[in-house]
Amino acid sequence: MITGGHYVEVLRLAKQMQGSKAMGYASIHKQLVKETGYIGTFYRGFWPWGVIQTVKGLPVLFVNTEVKHILTTKTEVDCRLVEPLAGVSGGIAQAFFVCPTQKLKVVAVADAKIGEMGFLDAVREVVKKQGIGSLYDGILAMCTRRGLDWCIRFTVSARVKEWFVQRRRGRGEGEELGLAELMGCGMVGGAVSAITHPIDCIITNAQKPAVGDGRVKRDPVSVAVRIYREAGWGGFGRGLGAKVLDNSYHTMWMYGIGTFVYEAVRGFTGEGGGGRE
């Protein structure tokens, strides 16, 4: 998040929130810089909402790992379904965790004044205008999108990992994958998961500020209709380039470093057995 991930998300959110006239990323960048300067643009909405979200991977990894453990040890679920089911569970858990901070981050990207407010002042401002329930605007779409997103990320990453292992076997090498190979697995999984982007556009537009906030419908169907009226089918693809980059970049680190550290800890505690599951 600190080394560029947050900035890519800022560009994506700004792109998704545009109405009938869409600006290019360069124009969006110039506009944001004009409002808050270079540093302010790079970290717009990062404090405190982005900082809080730096731990958003924990509910995914915890629930994903726990569900896989339960399914493989206490049920007879087909092994091919374990990874997808665990991914969906982790994604839904993350949605409930991240929705309030994502709402406030979207508002901060849309409104520089909110971004400059302190933690409590920003929350009060949003709740005053839109109500306490607004912190969970878009939760249904977010559960759907993040469930599918992490299902795809983990499943595709695992399949790519299997491909790497098979290639190593064919060359007569060990099955241990290096950090670069694991990061490659995550990069591919993240890029493929960007197919959920249309749902992400619905979430962002459900959470963005709007004239007459109290009367604006924010359920998935109403938001989808509003996007179509404003920008046609192309409105559901706005920010797709940034989304592919964002997902692949984050999953590259998360799957690569996460798996590498996990395997190192298992090996250190004597649980690894020299192989990978």
UniProtKB/TrEMBL annotation:
Superkingdom as given in the UniProt entry: Eukaryota
One record GO biological process: alpha-ketoglutarate transport
PROSITE patterns attached to this UniProt entry: SOLCAR
Record keywords, A-Z: Membrane, Transmembrane, Transport
Family listed: Belongs to the mitochondrial carrier (TC 2.A.29) family.
Subcellular localization(s) per the UniProt record: Membrane
Name this polypeptide is given: Mitochondrial carrier protein
Record carries keyword Transmembrane: yes
Membrane is among the record's keywords: yes
Solcar repeats (start-end): 78-163
Natural source organism: Triparma columacea
Molecular function GO labels: tricarboxylate secondary active transmembrane transporter activity
Annotated Pfam families: Mito_carr
InterPro entries: MCP_dom_sf, MCP_transmembrane, Mito_Cit/Oxoglu_Carrier
Entry membrane topology: Multi-pass membrane protein
Coiled-coil annotated spans: none
Any Gene Ontology CC annotation: mitochondrion
SUPFAM superfamilies tied to this protein: Mitochondrial carrier
